[in-house]
């Protein structure tokens, strides 16, 4: 059975966490992941407090005591939403895009555990000073807002800096092969987003899901165009999304976009209403090209674990015993 220090740190059976993904989560998705032994996490971004409260209560109703979490974006924190999470006694909090220190005391007082997300190794001391239980190292391959350092470079550095604190790998991981590779680079688990969008429980449009299934390797782009369109700067990050007509027209031409912003905003709103994937942000990580089917979230957790175990076992077979051991002679 695949078990790492992360499992003990968060009270879960499998080292797989489903990312909060802004607010593209549902009670059904989060509960399915947690019931399967992983950690389901709700995004809170732009969720009104009343709606968030309803989502959290619905999630708890679908669980039998298994832990679940919330992700709070500190650069755009809604303190009313944070208060709802505390009142609802959410078991696990993940803080991203900011220093979690000022918020950890209140979370600890509620008995919850804490995760911090980082996109550079320089952020690790701040996370450790806050006393977090685990750290997410998000590489530039991650869907939605992500930093600029490739996961293969970031993860070993974060794991070394974190000492004994378990590290989750985020960015481009969609299967057990990717999870096994992350473990080899120093991770204690995986933080997966895009793969869980391709589930029946994910609350995204049919066109978005179809675009995920149709994507091939290299079909994502890292761009500021969406943030410029909505006038929401996000320092230290860009949005990774599937290429479409919008990105082809405006990526790299963000200044020109500002001059046409009102008209383009109206066109994007219309595209979202009509489920036209050519204009709105189809956020996805760089591993999207390996996703080929819609899979129930609980089954997905189990299949990723099984594939990771098989991959690790196969790699173990590449290590031959030393000659003296092979003859049954102790070295």
Automatic annotation (TrEMBL):
Keywords annotated in UniProt: Flavoprotein, FMN, Oxidoreductase
Keyword Oxidoreductase: yes
EC number(s) reported in the record: 1.3.1.9
GO molecular function: enoyl-[acyl-carrier-protein] reductase (NADH) activity; nitronate monooxygenase activity
Stored InterPro entries: Aldolase_TIM, NMO
Protein name per Swiss-Prot or TrEMBL: Enoyl-[acyl-carrier-protein] reductase [FMN]
Species per Swiss-Prot/TrEMBL record: uncultured Thermomicrobiales bacterium
């Amino acid at each position: 059975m695949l078990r790492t220090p992360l499992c003990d740190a968060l009270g879960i059976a499998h080292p797989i966490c489903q990312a909060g993904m802004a607010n593209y989560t549902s009670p059904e998705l989060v509960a399915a992941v947690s019931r399967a032994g992983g950690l389901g996490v709700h995004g809170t971004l732009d969720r009104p407090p009343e709606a968030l409260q309803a989502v959290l209560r619905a999630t708890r109703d679908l669980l039998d005591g298994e832990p679940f979490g919330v992700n709070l974006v500190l650069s755009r924190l809604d303190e009313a939403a944070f208060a709802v999470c505390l009142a609802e006694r959410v078991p696990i909090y993940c803080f991203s895009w900011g220093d979690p220190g000022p918020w950890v005391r209140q979370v600890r007082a509620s008995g919850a555990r804490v995760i911090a997300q980082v996109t550079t190794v320089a952020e690790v001391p701040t996370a450790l000073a806050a006393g977090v239980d685990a750290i997410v190292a998000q590489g530039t391959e991650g869907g939605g807002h992500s930093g600029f350092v490739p996961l293969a470079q970031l993860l070993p550095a974060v794991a070394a800096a974190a000492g004994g604190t378990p590290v989750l790998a985020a960015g481009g991981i969609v299967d057990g092969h990717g999870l096994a590779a992350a473990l080899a680079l120093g991770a204690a688990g995986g933080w997966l987003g895009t793969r869980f969008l391709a589930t029946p429980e994910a609350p995204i449009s049919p066109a978005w899901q179809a675009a995920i299934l149709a994507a091939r390797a290299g079909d994502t782009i890292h761009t500021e165009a969406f943030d410029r369109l909505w006038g929401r700067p996000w320092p230290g990050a860009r949005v990774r999304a599937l290429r479409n007509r919008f990105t082809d027209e405006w990526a790299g031409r963000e200044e020109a976009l500002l001059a046409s912003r009102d008209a383009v905003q109206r066109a994007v709103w219309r595209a979202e209403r009509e489920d036209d994937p050519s204009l709105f942000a189809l956020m996805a990580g760089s591993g999207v090209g390996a996703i080929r089917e819609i899979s129930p979230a609980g089954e997905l957790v189990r299949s990723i674990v099984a594939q990771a175990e098989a991959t690790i076992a196969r790699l173990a077979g590449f290590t031959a015993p030393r000659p003296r051991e092979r003859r049954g002679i102790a070295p």
